[in-house]
Amino acid sequence: MDEPATANGAARPDTGSRAARPTLAAVARAAGVAPSTASLAFSGAGPVSEEARTRVLAAAAELGYGGPDPRARSLRRGRSGVIGVVMDERLSDAFRDPVNVLTLDGIAEVAGEAGTSLLLVRSPLDDAGLVGPLVDAPVDAVVLIGCNVRIDPAVAVLRRRNIPVVAIEADEIEGAVPVQLDNREASRRAAAFLRDLGHTAVAVVTLPLDGTHQRGPVSAEREAAGIAHTSLERLRGVRGVYPSAPAWEAAGSSVEEGRIVGAALFAADAPRPTAVVVQSDVLAVGVISAAFDAGLRVPEDVSVVGFDGIPVDDSLFHRTPIRQLTTLVQPFVQKGQAAARAAIAMLEGAPAQPAAFRSELRIGDTTAPPPAR
Amino acid sequence: MDEPATANGAARPDTGSRAARPTLAAVARAAGVAPSTASLAFSGAGPVSEEARTRVLAAAAELGYGGPDPRARSLRRGRSGVIGVVMDERLSDAFRDPVNVLTLDGIAEVAGEAGTSLLLVRSPLDDAGLVGPLVDAPVDAVVLIGCNVRIDPAVAVLRRRNIPVVAIEADEIEGAVPVQLDNREASRRAAAFLRDLGHTAVAVVTLPLDGTHQRGPVSAEREAAGIAHTSLERLRGVRGVYPSAPAWEAAGSSVEEGRIVGAALFAADAPRPTAVVVQSDVLAVGVISAAFDAGLRVPEDVSVVGFDGIPVDDSLFHRTPIRQLTTLVQPFVQKGQAAARAAIAMLEGAPAQPAAFRSELRIGDTTAPPPAR
DNA sequence: TTGTAAGCGTTATCAG
DNA sequence: CTGATAACGCTTACAA
């Protein structure tokens, strides 16, 4: 972290070793036209005679001018053409989770069509509430994705800056346009499905309840102190059917993590559950793996329900008897698209466009009636 | 964090959607100081009396000023604090490949420490050679990652703009700082290892040779027309030991793709290879899976060597007899870090810092002598 | 320490 | 269709 070395103290900011780039004004001068005409020649927005245009382009080529500087353009236009995407994990972790990737894909698709690019920002909320890179970055709008941490401060800052904020599956936030999923209701449906199969001993494996990456049984206090909207809603959904279902918190969403938590779960002193509701497919795969390792058959001895409907089950189950996970399929990509659309709409001055999506229970072969005892 | 409850005039009239954001000048005026002082109060870079600072901050809070506008700041400073990362795939595909993710992670780590954020840009090279979003985005430097397409035009444009370019594993490009990997030499070593084991019938499964996502046997013409530096180099490495090894091109880097190509490979009329050199671990997993499906044991009937050394072998092999892939382990994360460092160094005016890394052959349990026949 | 002034490179406006 | 001119909001050398 060295100090940027503008040490030579020149009058202009960047008079370092780099050759000064010609400006549009210089091109105009060389072409013998006014700056405004040169500008029009490049932006294409406005009437320019064919002759003037070619002269400008020629002069540009001559001088090695690469087109208008985006920085100046964004100042002048008040727009940078960039949408910030905020995630609250290290990028490597975030990218490892198909949910984020698919959502991002939806965002990227819509953003790309609109000619805007994506600025990746790790959620910048230190304990101090610092909002660093997020506010120093030239973004026109921000999409908050997978928020396990308290984001209100960030939203507050962005609001003050008049930067539209879209929050995917966040708690109700003042000033952020929500893109919601029926997490609670969907989880309730999954639980009801298990209940109808006859299950009475149901456990839950939750996604992280906050940004601290803790792992283990979820105490009442921990649950009450939880912040992560999605995890809590999904948990509440199950609790609507099984009010006292024990819950285990995973420290992340990965197969390995699911395996660890699953191992603990099946090894616990408590009576073994006959069904486990897992808050993500990736975790569910790990839990299933742990079940096998513990000598349990799925679904004969224990049923497992996932969440997400990620399309990679084939590879993950390839050498197991399982063909398809029972899970709640959610429309990630569409969620991402909706978020991007909402963001773009807002920065064009259109009214907020909240969105809400439903998950569908897809019944695979990881659920069955509980074993006769 | 809350609005100061100055009872009299604090409430800003909420002027509909177009509430003009206050400027630093306005804040300075309200605080009774000069703009420059207000600027220093925010940037922290320069001497400001405690009293002035608090007055400025108070005025800012009063007016709902959220800090200096990054757009204006970047124009003035000639820097936006953003590094562009260019990938030549759809983001969803790119993120699905651990190689990209890990590289990106290395980039993000270094960039984050330097206070710069990452702008994700899909490689914009239409057949027309358009370079759209890449040049309109306010980036200080660009890192090209995983380039299967011809990137010269993009680099040319960026050069003209004085934007430093770092290319990871690209062919030698005028004006781009290279971050290289010993693809050819490493592949040669892997091939030599197989030769020493006694293999004579060796096939290659390649990564895409260009951006067209073709799949199938690699003809001499196709090979000659190939663009993707990495794939070609790795292929050449094997050819250094097995000059006429048949090659099959995969249409991407995924387990599923590996399985498809592997199935074709093992079903082909040609004599079955006793060893397969696969250009990525992800593909290799698929090839191994295909081998099992074809009734072949790995490594007894067929040896498989991968490339990359991605750290997820455990999950992928979890229900197979295989514990570890024989592969060439490359330092992705360090590559990403080096790329980011090079980019940052350049935009600070430092001389170019090319980098080159080595891959290590890690011998797992997917390779063995060929079956006695 | 603080104030003054001069841009940074564009684009929008409006008159010719 | 073209040209002069005024911002866009901020930073920073330099003077006070």
Automatic annotation (TrEMBL), chains A, B:
GO molecular function per UniProt: DNA-binding transcription factor activity; transcription cis-regulatory region binding
Sequence segments annotated as region (Disordered): 1-22
Keywords linked to the UniProt accession: DNA-binding, Transcription, Transcription regulation
Entries under Gene3D superfamilies matching the protein: 3.40.50.2300, lambda repressor-like DNA-binding domains
Domain HTH lacI-type per the UniProt entry, residue ranges: 22-77
CDD domains: HTH_LacI (cd01392), PBP1_LacI-like (cd06279)
Name by which UniProt lists this protein: Transcriptional regulator
Protein species of origin: Curtobacterium luteum
